[in-house]
Amino acid sequence: MLVAARGASVLGFGIMKYDDDESHLLLLAVHPSVARQGLGAALVAWLEGSARAAGVGQVYLEARATNGPARAFYRRLGYGEIQRLPGYYGGIEASVRMAKDLWLEPASSA
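-> structure tokens emitted (110 positions)
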């Protein structure tokens, strides 16, 4: 788990599960007051860097099929949509599985 805070205020967090050769971004959240300021991308970059350091080359995540802004955000970060999962959320709402191969791009120096 990675947490971004200013003083006692949590501004965002990310949770990634790491396995031997792949990782799974389970949850990413950014407080609305700092949305669209780069924090989400920075959190993902840090989590991806940790995956690279552990020798992991593939990252997977799911986003609600109806959440166009989230899907666009991940596409901007290099994730591709690889699968649609009907009923993923509570047996009702579909998800889109996305993936990124970390070995296809150089690690950022950020």
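Strands lie at 2-6, 9-18, 22-30, 58-64, 80-89, 93-101.
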